[in-house]
Amino acid sequence: MQFGAQLGNYGTQWPDIATTVHALESGRWNSVWFSDHFMPPGRPEAADGPALEGWTLITAVAAITHRLRLGVLATGNTYRNPALLAKMCSTLDHISGGRMELGIGAAWYEHEHNTYGWGFPSIKERSDRLEEAVDLIRMLFTKSEDERVDFSGKYYQVKDAPLSPGSTQSPHIPILIGGNGEKRTLRTCAKSGDIFNLDFWHPGGVDVFAHKSEVVARHCESFDRDPEEIKRTVCLPFRLFETEEKFKSSSGMPWYCWGTASRIQDLLAEYIEAGAQEIMLCAVPNKPEAWQRIDEDVLSAFD
After folding, report:
1. pLDDT tens for residues 207-227?
2. pTM of this prediction?
Protein backbone atom coordinates (compact mmCIF):
# COMPACT_ATOMS: atom_id res chain seq x y z
CA MET A 1 0.00 0.00 0.00
CA GLN A 2 1.25 3.49 -0.85
CA PHE A 3 0.91 6.66 1.19
CA GLY A 4 1.58 10.23 0.11
CA ALA A 5 2.11 13.47 2.03
CA GLN A 6 0.65 16.77 0.87
CA LEU A 7 2.70 19.42 2.63
CA GLY A 8 1.44 22.94 3.28
CA ASN A 9 2.45 25.87 1.06
CA TYR A 10 0.95 28.45 3.38
CA GLY A 11 2.13 29.98 6.63
CA THR A 12 5.41 28.13 6.28
CA GLN A 13 9.02 28.62 5.20
CA TRP A 14 11.37 26.65 2.99
CA PRO A 15 13.65 25.42 5.82
CA ASP A 16 10.62 23.80 7.50
CA ILE A 17 9.60 22.17 4.23
CA ALA A 18 13.12 20.94 3.48
CA THR A 19 13.59 19.25 6.86
CA THR A 20 10.15 17.66 6.60
CA VAL A 21 10.88 16.35 3.11
CA HIS A 22 14.09 14.72 4.35
CA ALA A 23 12.05 12.93 7.03
CA LEU A 24 9.57 11.71 4.40
CA GLU A 25 12.39 10.52 2.15
CA SER A 26 13.78 8.31 4.90
CA GLY A 27 10.37 6.94 5.91
CA ARG A 28 7.61 4.80 4.46
CA TRP A 29 6.13 7.56 2.29
CA ASN A 30 5.73 7.02 -1.44
CA SER A 31 5.12 10.58 -2.59
CA VAL A 32 5.15 14.27 -1.67
CA TRP A 33 2.77 16.91 -3.02
CA PHE A 34 2.00 20.61 -2.80
CA SER A 35 -1.16 22.49 -3.72
CA ASP A 36 -1.51 25.09 -6.46
CA HIS A 37 -2.69 28.37 -4.98
CA PHE A 38 -1.14 31.81 -4.77
CA MET A 39 -2.75 32.77 -1.48
CA PRO A 40 -4.17 30.64 1.34
CA PRO A 41 -7.14 28.96 -0.37
CA GLY A 42 -10.71 29.56 0.68
CA ARG A 43 -9.77 32.31 3.14
CA PRO A 44 -9.83 35.78 1.53
CA GLU A 45 -9.21 37.34 4.94
CA ALA A 46 -5.87 35.49 5.14
CA ALA A 47 -4.62 36.68 1.75
CA ASP A 48 -1.69 38.54 3.32
CA GLY A 49 -0.24 35.38 4.87
CA PRO A 50 2.82 33.75 3.30
CA ALA A 51 2.01 31.51 0.35
CA LEU A 52 4.73 29.65 -1.55
CA GLU A 53 4.18 28.66 -5.18
CA GLY A 54 3.71 24.90 -5.61
CA TRP A 55 5.62 24.22 -8.84
CA THR A 56 8.63 26.15 -7.57
CA LEU A 57 8.51 24.12 -4.36
CA ILE A 58 8.30 20.75 -6.10
CA THR A 59 11.26 21.76 -8.28
CA ALA A 60 13.34 22.43 -5.17
CA VAL A 61 12.19 19.16 -3.62
CA ALA A 62 13.17 17.25 -6.76
CA ALA A 63 16.73 18.45 -6.25
CA ILE A 64 17.01 17.30 -2.62
CA THR A 65 15.33 13.87 -2.89
CA HIS A 66 16.14 10.61 -4.65
CA ARG A 67 13.22 8.28 -3.96
CA LEU A 68 9.92 10.10 -3.43
CA ARG A 69 7.40 10.51 -6.22
CA LEU A 70 6.63 14.19 -6.82
CA GLY A 71 3.65 16.28 -7.83
CA VAL A 72 1.26 19.19 -7.38
CA LEU A 73 -2.16 18.14 -6.11
CA ALA A 74 -3.64 19.49 -8.21
CA THR A 75 -2.50 22.10 -10.73
CA GLY A 76 -5.26 24.55 -11.69
CA ASN A 77 -5.65 24.28 -15.45
CA THR A 78 -6.70 27.93 -15.77
CA TYR A 79 -3.35 29.18 -14.43
CA ARG A 80 -1.03 27.89 -17.17
CA ASN A 81 -1.09 26.99 -20.83
CA PRO A 82 -1.20 23.15 -20.98
CA ALA A 83 1.69 22.90 -23.44
CA LEU A 84 3.81 24.98 -21.05
CA LEU A 85 2.68 22.76 -18.18
CA ALA A 86 3.71 19.64 -20.12
CA LYS A 87 7.15 21.18 -20.69
CA MET A 88 7.52 22.07 -17.01
CA CYS A 89 6.58 18.54 -15.98
CA SER A 90 8.83 16.78 -18.50
CA THR A 91 11.76 18.96 -17.44
CA LEU A 92 11.19 18.03 -13.80
CA ASP A 93 10.79 14.38 -14.78
CA HIS A 94 14.24 14.64 -16.38
CA ILE A 95 15.73 16.36 -13.31
CA SER A 96 14.20 13.86 -10.87
CA GLY A 97 15.08 10.72 -12.81
CA GLY A 98 11.49 9.86 -13.69
CA ARG A 99 9.62 10.63 -10.46
CA MET A 100 7.05 13.22 -11.61
CA GLU A 101 3.30 12.81 -11.72
CA LEU A 102 1.23 15.55 -13.34
CA GLY A 103 -1.75 16.40 -11.16
CA ILE A 104 -4.28 18.68 -12.84
CA GLY A 105 -7.83 19.88 -12.18
CA ALA A 106 -10.32 22.42 -13.48
CA ALA A 107 -9.52 25.06 -10.76
CA TRP A 108 -12.16 26.41 -8.39
CA TYR A 109 -11.00 29.44 -6.35
CA GLU A 110 -12.81 32.40 -7.89
CA HIS A 111 -11.40 34.97 -5.44
CA GLU A 112 -7.86 34.04 -6.44
CA HIS A 113 -8.64 34.42 -10.14
CA ASN A 114 -10.21 37.83 -9.58
CA THR A 115 -7.33 38.99 -7.41
CA TYR A 116 -4.69 38.23 -10.02
CA GLY A 117 -6.72 39.24 -13.05
CA TRP A 118 -7.25 35.77 -14.48
CA GLY A 119 -10.53 34.98 -16.14
CA PHE A 120 -12.81 32.66 -14.20
CA PRO A 121 -15.06 30.91 -16.73
CA SER A 122 -18.21 29.00 -15.93
CA ILE A 123 -17.87 25.50 -14.51
CA LYS A 124 -18.87 24.12 -17.93
CA GLU A 125 -16.10 26.04 -19.69
CA ARG A 126 -13.54 25.12 -17.03
CA SER A 127 -14.54 21.47 -17.46
CA ASP A 128 -14.29 21.78 -21.26
CA ARG A 129 -10.88 23.41 -20.92
CA LEU A 130 -9.66 20.68 -18.59
CA GLU A 131 -10.73 17.91 -20.95
CA GLU A 132 -9.06 19.64 -23.90
CA ALA A 133 -5.89 20.40 -21.92
CA VAL A 134 -5.52 16.79 -20.77
CA ASP A 135 -6.01 15.54 -24.34
CA LEU A 136 -3.21 17.84 -25.52
CA ILE A 137 -0.87 16.97 -22.65
CA ARG A 138 -1.39 13.26 -23.20
CA MET A 139 -0.52 13.69 -26.89
CA LEU A 140 2.70 15.46 -25.93
CA PHE A 141 3.59 12.86 -23.27
CA THR A 142 2.94 9.82 -25.47
CA LYS A 143 4.47 10.91 -28.79
CA SER A 144 7.72 9.38 -29.99
CA GLU A 145 10.91 11.30 -29.20
CA ASP A 146 11.30 12.73 -32.72
CA GLU A 147 7.58 13.34 -33.35
CA ARG A 148 5.93 16.77 -33.26
CA VAL A 149 2.35 17.50 -32.32
CA ASP A 150 -0.39 19.48 -34.03
CA PHE A 151 -3.47 20.21 -31.96
CA SER A 152 -6.35 22.49 -32.84
CA GLY A 153 -8.89 22.75 -30.06
CA LYS A 154 -11.43 25.36 -29.12
CA TYR A 155 -9.21 26.76 -26.35
CA TYR A 156 -5.69 25.47 -27.05
CA GLN A 157 -3.65 25.13 -30.20
CA VAL A 158 -0.12 23.97 -30.97
CA LYS A 159 1.54 23.57 -34.34
CA ASP A 160 4.49 21.30 -35.07
CA ALA A 161 5.26 21.28 -31.34
CA PRO A 162 8.11 19.18 -29.92
CA LEU A 163 8.43 18.00 -26.33
CA SER A 164 12.05 17.24 -25.65
CA PRO A 165 13.11 15.91 -23.28
CA GLY A 166 9.98 13.85 -23.10
CA SER A 167 8.97 11.52 -20.30
CA THR A 168 11.76 9.59 -18.62
CA GLN A 169 9.13 7.07 -17.50
CA SER A 170 7.57 4.21 -19.39
CA PRO A 171 5.10 4.47 -20.92
CA HIS A 172 4.90 8.17 -19.95
CA ILE A 173 4.53 10.62 -17.06
CA PRO A 174 1.30 9.64 -15.25
CA ILE A 175 -1.54 12.15 -15.49
CA LEU A 176 -3.55 12.51 -12.29
CA ILE A 177 -6.97 14.16 -12.53
CA GLY A 178 -7.99 15.84 -9.29
CA GLY A 179 -11.64 16.45 -8.52
CA ASN A 180 -14.86 14.80 -7.43
CA GLY A 181 -17.28 15.81 -10.21
CA GLU A 182 -19.00 12.76 -11.65
CA LYS A 183 -20.32 14.12 -14.95
CA ARG A 184 -17.19 15.82 -16.26
CA THR A 185 -14.05 15.50 -14.11
CA LEU A 186 -14.24 11.74 -13.58
CA ARG A 187 -15.25 11.31 -17.22
CA THR A 188 -12.15 13.24 -18.32
CA CYS A 189 -10.07 10.92 -16.15
CA ALA A 190 -11.65 7.86 -17.72
CA LYS A 191 -10.94 9.29 -21.17
CA SER A 192 -7.36 10.50 -20.81
CA GLY A 193 -6.12 10.16 -17.24
CA ASP A 194 -3.99 7.55 -15.49
CA ILE A 195 -4.91 8.31 -11.86
CA PHE A 196 -7.96 9.77 -10.20
CA ASN A 197 -7.69 11.65 -6.93
CA LEU A 198 -10.69 12.48 -4.77
CA ASP A 199 -10.44 15.47 -2.44
CA PHE A 200 -12.17 14.75 0.85
CA TRP A 201 -11.88 18.21 2.24
CA HIS A 202 -15.28 18.02 0.57
CA PRO A 203 -17.93 15.65 1.95
CA GLY A 204 -16.74 12.10 1.45
CA GLY A 205 -16.03 8.81 3.15
CA VAL A 206 -15.34 5.21 2.20
CA ASP A 207 -18.81 4.80 0.69
CA VAL A 208 -18.33 7.93 -1.43
CA PHE A 209 -14.92 6.69 -2.55
CA ALA A 210 -16.42 3.35 -3.61
CA HIS A 211 -19.24 5.11 -5.46
CA LYS A 212 -16.88 7.46 -7.33
CA SER A 213 -14.72 4.48 -8.30
CA GLU A 214 -17.78 2.87 -9.83
CA VAL A 215 -18.54 6.09 -11.72
CA VAL A 216 -15.04 6.07 -13.23
CA ALA A 217 -15.50 2.43 -14.20
CA ARG A 218 -18.78 3.24 -15.97
CA HIS A 219 -17.16 6.13 -17.83
CA CYS A 220 -14.34 3.80 -18.90
CA GLU A 221 -16.90 1.71 -20.77
CA SER A 222 -17.62 4.73 -22.98
CA PHE A 223 -13.96 4.88 -24.02
CA ASP A 224 -13.34 1.12 -24.19
CA ARG A 225 -10.83 1.35 -21.34
CA ASP A 226 -10.11 -1.18 -18.65
CA PRO A 227 -10.86 0.58 -15.31
CA GLU A 228 -7.84 -1.21 -13.84
CA GLU A 229 -5.65 1.03 -16.00
CA ILE A 230 -6.59 3.95 -13.72
CA LYS A 231 -4.99 4.16 -10.30
CA ARG A 232 -7.40 5.02 -7.48
CA THR A 233 -6.22 7.59 -4.93
CA VAL A 234 -7.75 9.87 -2.31
CA CYS A 235 -6.55 12.85 -0.26
CA LEU A 236 -7.68 12.91 3.38
CA PRO A 237 -7.44 15.72 5.94
CA PHE A 238 -5.56 14.11 8.82
CA ARG A 239 -5.20 14.61 12.55
CA LEU A 240 -3.83 12.18 15.10
CA PHE A 241 -5.22 12.33 18.66
CA GLU A 242 -3.66 10.94 21.82
CA THR A 243 -6.95 9.70 23.29
CA GLU A 244 -10.44 8.79 22.20
CA GLU A 245 -11.83 11.48 24.52
CA LYS A 246 -9.85 14.23 22.81
CA PHE A 247 -10.96 12.97 19.42
CA LYS A 248 -14.64 12.90 20.40
CA SER A 249 -14.46 16.49 21.63
CA SER A 250 -12.88 17.73 18.38
CA SER A 251 -14.70 19.71 15.71
CA GLY A 252 -13.61 17.93 12.55
CA MET A 253 -16.04 16.82 9.88
CA PRO A 254 -17.17 13.20 10.19
CA TRP A 255 -15.47 12.18 6.93
CA TYR A 256 -12.04 13.52 7.96
CA CYS A 257 -9.27 11.06 8.75
CA TRP A 258 -9.15 12.08 12.40
CA GLY A 259 -8.76 9.90 15.46
CA THR A 260 -6.43 7.80 17.55
CA ALA A 261 -3.85 5.64 15.79
CA SER A 262 -6.01 2.51 15.99
CA ARG A 263 -9.13 4.32 14.74
CA ILE A 264 -7.20 5.79 11.80
CA GLN A 265 -5.66 2.42 10.94
CA ASP A 266 -9.14 0.91 10.81
CA LEU A 267 -10.38 3.70 8.55
CA LEU A 268 -7.41 3.42 6.19
CA ALA A 269 -7.96 -0.34 6.01
CA GLU A 270 -11.54 0.34 4.91
CA TYR A 271 -10.30 2.59 2.08
CA ILE A 272 -7.83 -0.08 1.02
CA GLU A 273 -10.60 -2.69 1.05
CA ALA A 274 -12.67 -0.32 -1.13
CA GLY A 275 -9.87 -0.21 -3.71
CA ALA A 276 -7.68 2.75 -2.77
CA GLN A 277 -4.15 2.24 -4.09
CA GLU A 278 -2.57 5.35 -2.62
CA ILE A 279 -3.82 7.58 0.18
CA MET A 280 -2.48 11.11 0.50
CA LEU A 281 -2.66 12.72 3.93
CA CYS A 282 -2.84 16.49 4.35
CA ALA A 283 -3.29 19.27 6.94
CA VAL A 284 -0.34 18.04 9.02
CA PRO A 285 2.17 20.73 10.09
CA ASN A 286 5.46 20.98 8.23
CA LYS A 287 7.37 19.44 11.12
CA PRO A 288 9.52 16.32 10.67
CA GLU A 289 8.46 14.88 13.99
CA ALA A 290 4.75 15.12 13.08
CA TRP A 291 5.17 13.08 9.91
CA GLN A 292 7.60 10.65 11.53
CA ARG A 293 5.02 9.96 14.22
CA ILE A 294 2.39 9.15 11.59
CA ASP A 295 4.93 6.89 9.88
CA GLU A 296 5.69 4.92 13.02
CA ASP A 297 2.28 4.93 14.75
CA VAL A 298 0.01 4.51 11.73
CA LEU A 299 1.74 3.49 8.50
CA SER A 300 3.80 0.77 10.14
CA ALA A 301 0.61 -1.31 10.39
CA PHE A 302 0.53 -1.58 6.58
CA ASP A 303 4.07 -2.91 5.99
Report:
1. 999 999 999 999 999 999 999
2. 0.96
